[in-house]
Structure formats: structure tokens, C-alpha cells
Amino acid sequence: MEGQSLATSIFRRIPSGIRFVCLVAAMCSAALFCNRSAAQDSANEPVYPEIGPTTHFLDHDVLIAGFAESGWYKANIPFIDIPDKQIQEVYYYRWRTAHEAQRYTGEKNGWITTEFLGPISYSAPYGGISAAAGYHIAEARWIRDTRYLDDYINYWLVGDGSGPKPAEDSVNKNTTDWAHEYSFWAATAVLDRAKVTGDFAFATKLLPQLIKFYNTWVAAV
Question: For residue range 139-183, what is the model confidence (pLDDT) as tens digits?
Fold first, then answer.
């Protein structure tokens, strides 16, 4: 209380005009801080694709009960009615694990899908492993938000996933780039995905890289 009285006494000795300016400056600073915080919070909020008008026959909340970030699933995955309860549980469990395996690596490579939740010594940069890439693309082709697979496919064909790796036995001594550490059906996976999205332009734009990807395997045989 003594400190508060001293501060009050000092404040009262300041001319009223200067006190007014100080008060306005403090209010402006507070407003700027609040606006900046709100903008940062907005930037960190997840952005989901527009679902559009549709008819819901299934209770989505029940099907994905207990899933973190339920809004992601509602905006991105196909909800289907499966008569067999066990198969239905496996179907939605698989979507949960698929989403958990998505990793944002930064502006250069964007989103990739990992095979393991933790780091693996023999993985490509950021944890990518080409052995599962074909399966990843086949499953994720049904995701409404196309940026995940756009980034992931580019990662293996033109990004860091296509970069050089040691020609050592622990990471396949017969190849020299991460995309060819293990084999995967890149062209088939990209084509099947285009059949779902209807975006064949994305696939044909990568045709030179897909041909190069195939020819690298031919040369390695």
C-alpha cells in the first residue's frame, strides 16, 4: 500500500496534459498488443476446406469419438456406413493413424507423411520413407484438402525426398537418392490419385519427373 501511495503521489505531480498523453499512449500500446495477439491466434488456427452443402445420414461425432482435432476429419475424410462394427472401427482408426502421421516440414517441402511417429535412422529428410509412399498416396487420395498429397508427391519427385543419399548398405547401397531407397509405384499412385481429384494437370506436370523416377530403377537393375 505504501508503494501504491508513493506511485499515486508521483503521478499526481505530473502536469495533467502530460498525464493525458501517457494515458493515450498506454491505451494504444494495449490495443496494438491485443490486435497482434488476435492475429497470431488466427494464423495458428487450422484451415479446413469448405465441405459445401451435403446430406448427413451418419453421426460423425460418434464415429470419430475421442479423436483429437475432430474438425479435420469432418472436413477431409469420407464417412461411410459399414455394417460390420469391427471393420468400421478399423476404418476410422486407420484414418486417425494416417492423420497422426502427417508432418509439416516447412515452406520448402510442406506436408509429408511419415511411416513411424518417431525419428528413424534410415529415413529421408524429415522422416520420409519411400517404402510406404505408394500406400500413403493411395490412402490419402481421398482427403478433400489436396495440399497434403500435392506436397508429399512433390517431396519425393522434386523435393528433399528426391535428394542424394549415401550408397551404403543400411540405406540401400545400390541407389543414390532417397526416393529410390525402397521401391514404390509412383506413377500408378499419382494417376490413381488424379482419378479421384480430377486434377490430371497436376499429374501430367510431373510426367518428366515420373519418367526419370522409372528410368532410375531401370538403370539400377
Answer: 999 999 999 999 999 999 999 999 999 999 999 999 999 999 999
For the chain, domain boundaries? 2-44, 101-220
Residue 1, classed as helix, strand or coil, is coil
Element (H, E) at 156: helix 147-157
Reported as a single tens digit per residue, the pLDDT across 97-128 is 999 999 999 999 999 999 988 778 999 999 99
The set of cell numbers assigned to 155 is 517431396
Rounded CA separation 132/161 (Å): 13
Q: Quote the distance between the C-alpha of residue 214 and its chain's center.
A: 27
* Contacting residues for 54 by C-beta, under 8 A, at least 6 apart: none
d(CA 94, CA 103): 16
Q: Which residue has the cell 469420407?
A: 78
